[in-house]
Each structure stands twice: as structure tokens, then as C-alpha cells.
Amino acid sequence: MHSDRLIVNLALIGFMGAGKTSVGRLVAEQLHFDYLDTDELIQSRTGRPIVEIFSTDGEAAFRKMEQELVGELAARTKTVIATGGGLPMNPQNLVSLKTHALVVCLWASPEKIWERVKNQTHRPLLHDADPQKKIRELLAAREPFYRQADVLLNTELRSVREVAQQVVHQFRLEASRRR
Ligand code: S3P
């Protein structure tokens, strides 16, 4: 990693159900950082659930909202940013996040992801005749983007608390390298 990079925030990327929200909240607590969730912010600003944005305006409109929001994040400091699962597919978003944040990717296998999301209904991309196949396909297509994170963490055999500890450790390590 370039040593001239400014790391004042922490961004969590990864597939739906990887644990970005639950891990992000814990990490923010431990680092005494603010917590921000790109999906939550888009929903509160538009006053509409993501499922509705997708069905009425289409995915492209949602991706545009994501990109605009990512641009604003460069003004933040001491913030844990949990991102929507598709956000890093836009290379510009990753480039932008890396100008101010350590980017950590939470990883899990398609099987584990299915186990975690199968009883949830708020994700439009999983409203599919064969959601398990959809997960496998999307994850395979996205893997090269997720791999561009600064840190890749497998969440499979770890509890939320353990993953959060690892993330905090990586962040402190990176911060101390820059002192
Ligand atoms: C999406 C993931 C969702 C949300 C939207 C699209 C994706 O966020 O942004 O439904 O493309 O993977 P989570 O990863 O928080 O579920």
C-alpha cells in the first residue's frame, strides 16, 4: 500500500450477508468512530426502501445514487463506512474510497451467504427463481473487485465479534505504520 495514502476512515466491502452491517457497528464502537451505512443513507434520503428504488427507477438509478454518495464520503473522518454489496463493481467507487479509507473486504462462500440471507426479503437482487444460483453467479463476477480491498477477511469460521476484532486490529496496525 502507498505510504502517502491518507487513512482516516474504514470502509467495509463485500457480498450481501458477509456481515458488513453487524461487524461495522461493532468496529465503530471499538474505534470510537461514527457508523455510516450507504444503503441506510440512500433509503433515508429518498424516503424509499431499496427494493422500491430498484423496482421503480431501476438498478442503474440506484448505482448512480451510490456513486454520488461515495463522492461525499471523502469529506468524512473517523467513520466506519458499511457499503452495499454491489458498490465496488464501479471501479471509481473503490478508487475514491481508497483516497481516505482502509478498505476491508468481508468474505464468505456462496453456501454460507445463502445460510445467512435465506430468511431475509429486503434484497432485490435475490428476488430470483433460483437465489442460490444467483448468489454463486454474482459472487463469481464480483470476486475480482472484492479482491482489490486492502485487507481480505474470511468470516466463515468466525463470530461477528471475532471478525470485528480482526478488522480493528488491521486498522490499528495500518494507522500505527503511518505515525
Ligand atoms: C446489493 C446489496 C445490498 C443493496 C442492494 C444491492 C448488491 O446491500 O445495496 O440491494 O448489489 O449486492 P447489502 O450488501 O448491504 O445487502
| Secondary-structure content class | alpha/beta
Annotated CATH homologous superfamily: P-loop containing nucleotide triphosphate hydrolases
N-C termini distance: 15 Å
What percentage of residues falls in helices of 4 or more residues?
A: 40-55%
Would you kindly provide a written description of the structure presented here, covering whatever features stand out?
- This protein is an alpha/beta fold and 179 residues long.
- The protein has a single domain, classed as P-loop containing nucleotide triphosphate hydrolases (Rossmann fold), CATH 3.40.50.300.
- The chain has eight helices and five strands; from the N terminus they run E-H-E-H-H-H-E-H-E-H-H-E-H.
- Strands 2-3-1-4-5 form a five-stranded parallel sheet, with helices on both faces.
- The longest helix is centred in the C-terminal third of the chain and has 18 residues.
- The mean pLDDT is 95.
- The structure holds shikimate-3-phosphate (S3P).
- The site of shikimate-3-phosphate has 10 residues, from loops.
Fold topology:
Blueprint: E1 9-14, H1 20-31, E2 34-37, H2 38-46, H3 50-57, H4 59-73, E3 79-82, H5 91-98, E4 101-107, H6 110-117, H7 131-146, E5 151-154, H8 160-177
Parallel strand pairs: 1-3, 1-4, 2-3, 4-5
Helix pairs in contact: 1-8, 3-4, 4-5, 6-7
The chain binds shikimate-3-phosphate.
Shikimate-3-phosphate binds next to loops.
